[in-house]
Task: inverse folding
């Protein structure tokens, strides 16, 4: 009987822990000590995500090498007693802004060896008691000014072995604990001060003017704020790489100022030339040369440092030719602003008296009647772009002239285009207006086949809603000629007037064909075929967005009858 009672007591004792503590997770171990119950999961790839069935009585969680990538919203909301959370050496890249929700008792968070590029610092509003934050060996490259605002009780912050390059001193000046220490020092209070450990070493610090505030802040630190490693090292720019913070003196940032030794230069044909410009700025600016509207890439360009804040750029132009004359501009840009300076180059040659105001002289008689194929390349909301092709003997020396204005105007705006450029864009067009654009060689006047006539729409509001200003249908009037004699472009808002022009053109050509020989008859037949095809294109969108227009039924019936005759002749 005594033996049975003894066995019953033993069974009850063994059963008690089972009722008090839930089972541990598979692949993990659970330890109970005077600090509470701990969950330790160190098995490689034990979980693909943070388990959602964590025991609710845990005070410490340590999950490492599981390679999950995210801390989702409320991941630990069922374990409110957790004080220590270690998630080292996983592949965490994202922390939800509510990923720490429910961890009001958390005092230690370690995220070493993950892949974090940024941290939602507002998430620490849910951890008011956090004292230790370990983020070393991640990929953090930015620290916003408000980052430490939500960590009032933090006494250990490790940001070492990340990719930080530039941070502002305001990051630490906005830290409530730092402000508290500063206020205590001002009041001469020295009692019961807790040391604060800060680790910032082994980052890619870029020691230019943008880091001036941090360098000064580091130099001013004293206990109770302690740097784990006070020898912070510069990674760039190159002339400061490897230097310690305490060895450098940084200046305030400034916008670029660009200058050139000479603003005008004249050299004989065939000379070798090197253009120079000086760009003074903090931080270092990006510097490039432009010629006309294009960034220069064909010539050799190099840069060298003259002083801590000045860069000299060299542009080498070998064996000057007539096509090299013009304005060369050196431009420098940094995050504060930009600046530029220009050099006007004149190339002196035997026939320079024939040059046109800084543009190369005529290349020869062969270019005077050159074929130029011009077309509309694309349409935009408020403009068009054209492209052209010219069969030239010396394309690297040939300039073009764009003539643009309203159709019928004697004087048109002229734009000179340098060698190698074969496109041009026009914007801010006026609605319901007929324009003409021509492409010619150098200073020549436009000839048939070098121009395009187009008409803009009348309803700007509708076209803006549809993100179309110009609906282009190109009607080729003489495709059999070596050089096209012109093109019309009609919009959907001018369908009926444009259609009438096509019909009238067809009638005129029919009358001409009746009194001409077989060659003209064939020409008329071709034009009729083309007119019928393009009339169909003009009316293609008519059924899709029909608009009410005040026109008589007789005019419409007449138009349809002409269309029928054209279609019948086509077939």
Result:
């Amino acid at each position: 009987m005594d033996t049975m009672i003894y066995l019953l007591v033993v069974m009850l004792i063994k059963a008690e822990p089972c009722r008090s503590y839930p089972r541990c997770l598979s692949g993990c171990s659970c330890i109970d000590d005077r600090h509470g119950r701990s969950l330790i999961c160190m098995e490689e790839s034990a979980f693909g995500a943070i388990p959602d069935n964590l025991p609710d009585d845990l005070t410490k969680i340590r999950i490492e090498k599981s390679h999950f990538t995210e801390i989702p919203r409320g991941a630990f909301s069922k374990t409110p007693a957790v004080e220590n959370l270690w998630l080292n050496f996983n592949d965490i890249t994202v922390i939800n802004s509510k990923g720490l929700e429910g961890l009001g008792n958390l005092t230690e968070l370690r995220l070493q060896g993950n892949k974090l590029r940024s941290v939602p610092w507002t998430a620490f509003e849910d951890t008011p008691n956090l004292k230790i934050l370990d983020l070393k060996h991640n990929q953090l490259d930015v620290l916003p000014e408000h980052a430490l605002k939500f960590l009032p009780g933090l006494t250990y912050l490790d940001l070492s072995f990340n990719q930080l390059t530039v941070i502002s001193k305001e990051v630490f000046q906005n830290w409530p604990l730092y402000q508290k220490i500063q206020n205590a020092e001002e009041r001469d209070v020295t009692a019961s001060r807790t040391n604060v450990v800060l680790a910032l070493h082994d980052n890619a610090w870029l020691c230019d003017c943008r880091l001036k505030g941090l360098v000064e802040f580091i130099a001013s630190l004293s206990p109770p704020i302690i740097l784990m490693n006070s020898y912070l090292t510069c990674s760039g720019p190159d002339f400061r790489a490897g230097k310690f913070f305490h060895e450098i003196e940084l200046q305030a940032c400034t916008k670029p100022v660009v200058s050139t030794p000479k603003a005008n230069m004249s050299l004989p044909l065939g000379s070798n030339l090197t253009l120079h410009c000086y760009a003074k700025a903090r931080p270092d600016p990006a510097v490039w040369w432009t010629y006309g509207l294009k960034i220069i890439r064909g010539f050799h360009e190099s840069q060298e440092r003259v002083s801590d804040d000045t860069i000299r750029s060299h542009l080498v132009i070998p064996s000057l030719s007539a096509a090299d004359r013009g304005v060369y501009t050196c431009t420098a840009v940094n995050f504060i602003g930009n600046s530029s300076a220009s050099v006007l180059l004149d190339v002196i040659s035997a026939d320079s008296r024939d040059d046109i105001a800084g543009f190369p002289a005529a290349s020869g008689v062969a270019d005077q009647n050159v074929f130029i194929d011009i077309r509309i390349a694309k349409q935009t909301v408020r403009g068009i772009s054209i492209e052209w092709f010219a069969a030239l003997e010396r394309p690297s020396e040939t300039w073009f002239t764009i003539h643009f204005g309203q159709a019928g105007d004697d004087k048109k705006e002229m734009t000179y285009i340098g060698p190698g450029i074969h496109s041009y864009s026009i914007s801010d067009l006026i609605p319901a207006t007929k324009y003409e654009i021509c492409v010619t060689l150098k200073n020549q006047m436009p000839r048939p086949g070098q121009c395009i006539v187009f008409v803009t729409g009348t309803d700007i509001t509708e076209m803006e809603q549809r993100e179309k200003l110009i609906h282009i249908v190109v009607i080729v009037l003489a495709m059999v000629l070596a050089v096209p004699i012109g093109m019309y472009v009609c919009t959907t808002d001018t369908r009926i007037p444009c259609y009438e022009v096509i019909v009238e053109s067809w009638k005129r050509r029919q009358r001409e064909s009746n009194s001409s020989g077989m060659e003209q008859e064939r020409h008329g037949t071709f034009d009729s075929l083309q007119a019928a095809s393009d009339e169909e294109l003009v009316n293609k969108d008519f059924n899709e967005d029909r608009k009410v227009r005040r026109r008589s039924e007789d005019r419409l019936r007449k138009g349809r009858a002409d269309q029928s005759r054209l279609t019948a002749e086509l077939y």
